[in-house]
Amino acid sequence: MTTPVGRWRRLLAAGLAAGALAGLAGCGSAAAGPPVLTWHTNPDDGGQAAIARDCTAAAGGRYEITVSTLPRQAGEQRQQLVRRLAAGDSSVDLMSIDPPYIPEFAEAGFLAPVPPDVAQRTTRGVVDSAVLGASWGGELVTVPFWANTQLLWYRKSMVAGTGLDMTRPVTWDQVIAAAQRRNSAIAAHGIRAESLTVWLNALVESGGGQIITDPSPDDPKGVRLGLDSPAATKAAEIMKAVSTVSVPGFSTAGEEEASDAFQSGDAMFQVNWPFVWGKVTSATDEGTVDRATLDDFGWAPYPRVVASRPTAPPYGGINIGVGAFSRHPDLAYQAVECIVSAEHQKEYFLTNGNPAARISVFTDPDVVQKFPMAPVIAQSLQQAKPRPQTAYYSEVSESIQRTYHPTAGIDPPTVGPATAALIKAVLAKEELL
Prior knowledge:
Elements (H helix, E strand, L loop, with lengths): L3 H22 L10 E6 L5 H13 L4 E6 L4 H13 L7 E4 L4 H6 L8 H8 L4 H6 L1 E2 L2 E2 L2 E7 L1 E5 H4 L12 H10 L4 E2 L6 H13 L5 E3 L9 E2 L4 H15 L10 H10 L4 E4 L2 H12 L4 H5 L1 E4 L14 E8 L6 H11 L2 H11 L12 H6 L3 H10 L9 H11 L8 H16 L6
Parallel strand pairs: 1-2, 1-3, 8-11
Antiparallel strand pairs: 3-13, 4-5, 6-13, 7-11, 7-12, 9-10
Helix pairs in contact: 9-10, 10-19, 18-19
């Protein structure tokens, strides 16, 4: 196995040479008009394209933003971007990047440096998890756009009488016990996919541990792991226990399947992203779900692992990076500041259902009216922790997905050390995934 950093550095050298030749060949052929900035975006409901039009109009002829849509899966988005960037593609001006891949992009030299004044303005009033997720090596390398986190959703009617006080923090053990008493289920994400890594990381972080204790960016063999810690063992115990009170088909259930099981009443709890609220409200408006179901939805912060320790919910979202080979990095960062403005983050939250990175958006009356759980989302984002930050994230995540799936079959004391051994073997080129 070739490590990401070494692979991209070799491709980068070849790409720079090819890009230089292409640039010489194209001299004198530039089209008239303002510079065109290409923004490579993840698929959404048209929200990023709308922001691109707004920012183009606001630029007053200084630049124009066009949108190029990436594949739907985050891994495929990463793959397409790194191929372009490794070739020195100057058409990659702006990128919507999934946070786990930011360290890899930064280590490979794919990101134009964030000017200090831009960094200061774009992180002011931004939730802590989004700033951390946009950074690498102690520096901001991308700009927070929108942030996401998971809540504990519960059916009010089913929780009543279980003894759980949902106005106070609850633990995973309490949630599991309540589901057992009701002979009901917990809808989580047991599928062999990225969501499994998200779940494990949140549990380990909530228990006071870390999957990676030393990222060792320059030497993959030096990466240190914390999967043999008490926090990691407890995380595995919770995952296995949830499997015993999970919905049918748990081993193939992702976010959508969890949402469907909860909305149908097959589960009294679910851990999931806020999209579930937009989904049930739309179904209610369309008449496919009755109002009583909507009114039965409750929400609370992500469960604790340890009763005395604050929870560390999952962090997700999208950050904006500027390509290292863009011909117009200064204009690109002007565009970034327009894209991530509080006004556009509010608009994107309301139209696409993706929570903002700026704290002020969560108290906006329009936002609170449409998303009454906005204060809990903001609280969760302040406590959330990114997934393991490493230039070798793909190898780490794929190893976890192999060894922790299916969760019903894991052995809590041994699965962590076994996973650590696999990760080390993969990074040492002794094992293939």
